[in-house]
Amino acid sequence: MSIIEQIEKPTLLLDAEKARRNIHRMAEKANKLQVRFRPHFKTHQSAEIGEWFRPEGVTAITVSSVDMAYYFARSGWQDITIAFPVNLRQVGAIRELAAQIHLELLVESAETVSFLQENLAVPVDVWVKIDSGAGRTGLAWNEFEAMSGLARQINKSSKLHLRGILTHAGHTYQAKTPDQVRRLFSQSVGRMLQARYNLQASGVGMVEISVGDTPGCSLSDNFGGVSEIRPGNFVFYDAEQNAVGSCAAKDIAVALACPVVAKHPERGEAVVYGGAIHLSKDWMVEDGRMIHGKIALPQGDGWGEPLGGAYVDRLSQEHGLVHLEKEDLDKLRIGDLICVLPVHACLTVQVMGEYLTLEGKKVRTMNK
Amino acid sequence: MSIIEQIEKPTLLLDAEKARRNIHRMAEKANKLQVRFRPHFKTHQSAEIGEWFRPEGVTAITVSSVDMAYYFARSGWQDITIAFPVNLRQVGAIRELAAQIHLELLVESAETVSFLQENLAVPVDVWVKIDSGAGRTGLAWNEFEAMSGLARQINKSSKLHLRGILTHAGHTYQAKTPDQVRRLFSQSVGRMLQARYNLQASGVGMVEISVGDTPGCSLSDNFGGVSEIRPGNFVFYDAEQNAVGSCAAKDIAVALACPVVAKHPERGEAVVYGGAIHLSKDWMVEDGRMIHGKIALPQGDGWGEPLGGAYVDRLSQEHGLVHLEKEDLDKLRIGDLICVLPVHACLTVQVMGEYLTLEGKKVRTMNK
User: Fold this and answer.
1) Which of A37, A118, A301, A320 is most buried, by CB atoms within 10 Å?
2) Does residue B145 belong to any structural domain of this protein?
């Protein structure tokens, strides 16, 4: 009996070979384009998977929280950027960590810079967070005065060293085509170059540029002037990345195996054990419809291509309502397994907290 | 310094007094209306909070998975309904549990009934799951032939005892007003009565009716003919329940305390440390807008009333983008805490896995 056939309840399958291939491909690209590869580990959140990056020459990583920085520092990572605006309430933990490893932080306000100057013990590198179009955090890319003011404040600080300007062009996730991704990414890089030019003109000196986002880093070759890239999602990819063209369906390295518990042919649906607590409630739009995952069937030791016309239509706490074409639904029996390709791998990994490789090995994350 | 002021990172606050009051109110109502109170423990998922139900005379509970049944059986619950279609792949675990406690299962297909007959060791009680309008799982309430066929199959089985018919009128969650909730709930109860009448007419004999759903159980007094109620969400309530009128804002017993990490006055937003991994990505519609939570400010040892015009607008993995009225945003400083009243308490509890009471005590769930 294959590993998959032994599964009893919702289980996050990991195709390690695909993940390693995804890592190798991105490392190779960074190498070719001569940008530093500082992958974001918030997607896999696993010390063991982190080790798969070392043979590719990766020595510096990105994380999204102080706790995650501690977790990876414990498994030997010595150069970590916390790519989240500094949480002043955790300054004690940040101070301790900065004494142990090379730590890089993100700042975007004078208040935070002053607070760090007063509360840090050893100096840290900081990046000014720039909003290059995503509209989430950071100084707007064209707020040159605020930016140079903040840079000068950092340069005066004895505890902070200005490493550069950093952005996350997260709006590439909303693109509909590879060309749209490339345009948004190039626009974002162009804005960063302009921001740096203005900083230099205001006497701040030369600084680095850091960009991140899986769609842009996967699809663009236009990294001129960029010092480092911080993609994360590419390690597994997912249905959303496949839809925008960042990856092929066969590159998706995780799938949630779910037992079928009921069938409703009258409405073309199967009910699976696999709900919001297993997939998260993230969604994407496909053919004008909000969906929560694509569907594949177990095949050999893994899973096959996504089924046409099949998707997770609704989720409640433990239930997944899966729409299938009549032919596929007819073949399915209660007790069978189906594989859900998640919309957003990062959140599915977060809620599941643990993987099962296709070789039957459990791989833990920091959450389990 | 108050308990809340000491918080460093996203923390799920629990107002135990409010939760106990919510439990007492529902128990009292069930008692008055003479229906069995079999609360759903999937909302709190905590052995410790489970104990708060015992003084109200609760001896029977509902859970949503085999694992959750084991967890509560270990803390002394002897009468448990797993309100989810039987997952055939876990029949080994179900068989073991059925030998230890009084276990009740849900069935909706001939395949599942046959499988249980073949694979159980000791007999269990079963409920036929009925779809009384929610469109999720169960036989449609007016599929009388299928229903009586299944009931007869169960009656012939030596391993299954037909306890009754069970529904979850989950579509009350989509109602916009208390009157709509009451209408949908009454319609659902009416359909269950009709289904039972037809079962009796077909010679199946008298069976019980079980209904559940927090909006209906909170707002309706029309339980004629119902044997038991299984609400879960009422223990904490949430922003969604408040919006539909199931509870007052002051009844909401959980809130996620989040540090403010950035401010963007130009777009009326604060950025908080508190994202999809802390709140889940559940959403509701308010004023035509998709929102992910309401906002209150710390007050004394707890939190105050929800702020008008304030809501969580967007969530990414760790970021929450919070819209606030200018006056409220002006008062807020980086490093302050705000409290997010979750859209859906069940999913927030699931991702957080642990509570902090207003007295500073940690309360664990089965997930941590």
Assistant:
1) A320
2) yes
Residues in CB range of A37: below 8 A, 6 or more apart = A26, A27, A30, A31, A56, A57, A58, A228, A229
Q: Which of B89, B136, B334 minimises the CB distance to A8?
A: B89
The Cβ of residue B103 has, within 10 Å, a number of other Cβ atoms equal to 23
Its domain, for residue A67, covers 40-231
Chain A contacts in chain B segment 44-73 (CB below 8 A): 64-67
| CB spacing of B135 vs A267 below 8 angstroms | yes
Å between B331 CA and nearest CA of chain A: 14
A267 interface with B at CB cutoff 8 Å: yes
Q: What is the pLDDT of residues B284-322, one digit of tens each?
A: 999 999 999 999 999 999 999 999 999 999 999 999 999
Residues A54 and A162 in one domain: yes
Verify that B124 and B210 share a domain, yes or no. Answer: yes
Q: Which SS3 state, helix, strand or coil, does residue A349 take?
A: helix
Q: What is the pTM of this model?
A: 0.96
B189 and B60 inside one domain: yes
Q: How far apart are CA B45 and CA B62, in angstroms?
A: 11
Q: How far apart are the C-alpha atoms of B225 and B212, rounded to whole Å?
A: 14
What is the DSSP code string of B81-145?
EEEEE--GGGHHHHHHHHHHSEEEEEE--HHHHHHHHHH-SS-EEEEEEEESSS-SSSEETT-HH
Q: Are A23 and A56 in contact (CB under 8 A)?
A: yes
Optimal mutation site among B96, B111, B281, interface A, most CBs of chain A within 10 A: B281
* ipTM of the modeled complex: 0.95
Which CATH number does the domain housing residue B291 bear?
2.40.37.20
Name the region of B133 (left: φ>0; alpha: ψ -120 to 50; beta: rest): left
Among the candidates A197, A231, A265, a domain finishes at A231
Q: Which of residues 297-356 of B touch A (CB under 8 A)?
A: 314, 316-319, 321, 333-335, 337, 346-347, 350-351
To the nearest whole Å, the CA of B227 is away from the closest chain A CA by 25
Q: What's the mean pLDDT when you consider all of chain B?
A: 96
**Domain total for chain A?**
2
